[in-house]
Input
Amino acid sequence: MGDIEFAQKLVKEMDKKTLQAALRLASKNGFVVQGFTKNLHLAPISRIVAAMEKRKKGMGVHQSSIFLCAVAELDGDSQPVRQARKWTGSTRGQLELIMDMERGGNQILLQTEKVEPVEQREEKEENQEESKAGKESQDEEAVEQREAMAQAEEKRVPDSMPEEKAEALEQGKIKKLQAKLQELKIGADNLNREKEQLKKDRGRLERNYIKAQADLEGLREQCKSLEAERNEYRQQKEEMQKELERYQQLFERLPKVLCFSKKQLNSGMFPLNRIEQHREWEPELAETVDWKEYREIWVTECDFSYPEVCLIRKAARGKLVVARNLSALITKVGGIHDGYAR
Output
């Protein structure tokens, strides 16, 4: 016997109140009856019994399993609820219920507690007198069932049953139990494989997590190092800016000189002077240049004609320094030539 057959037997023996409570709870977990999706409480017993065999897509279980779990979760301690809890609780509980039901003539009521079927309850609501008679009949049937159970406990096989038939019946029971045990064993093996796979996945995830933590710590150390380097560069930049400002102030205090030379000068030749250069002489320079702004006027004679030198001398008004060429000028005023100071 599996979940389907047990659930079909159980639903037929439940009272209306317990059944409705179980259906409400089961519907939340996906239990449906075709044609009664929105009004499950109006579904007849036959349709509910048939719905037990339907398999839920995506869940891999029959609706009978959903229904049994819902009954087991109900409050109270009625006979159907206890039996559902025992069935869903363990494999041993299922085997005990199967053996008890087989000894009791395949009846779901195994103890002295009497549960009124749903169909008789509905007849009671329709006709009080017929319900009372049905209840008395049910009491008689329950007494007969208890007597049959007592006899079955005393002697599993009636005296009138042939030995071969009894042995065949026992063998059939054993085969059913073996099939059930095999099914449960396969399920346990599958669960063990899933458990091992989960352990492997967990180990892999833990290793990845440790590696990610180490990488994160490394990135944090790199960030700290880069932050320190940035602060160091910033400090160096500030120092260089201060040094540049100091040199700028020194440069502004250097004497300003105007040099007439066709060869290009550079600041390294005369580091102690601020040099402005004219590589050509033009007559209008005599009027446009502010000669008073310069401390000295330098001229390389080889680059200009004699009349041009005379014009420059006149405009310089006593500030003129004349040299034959650039090399002689560097020597005369104290510049740097070919890496050596003159």
User: Anything to note?
Assistant: The CA atoms of residues 124 and 325 lie 137 Å apart. The chain has a mean pLDDT of 80.
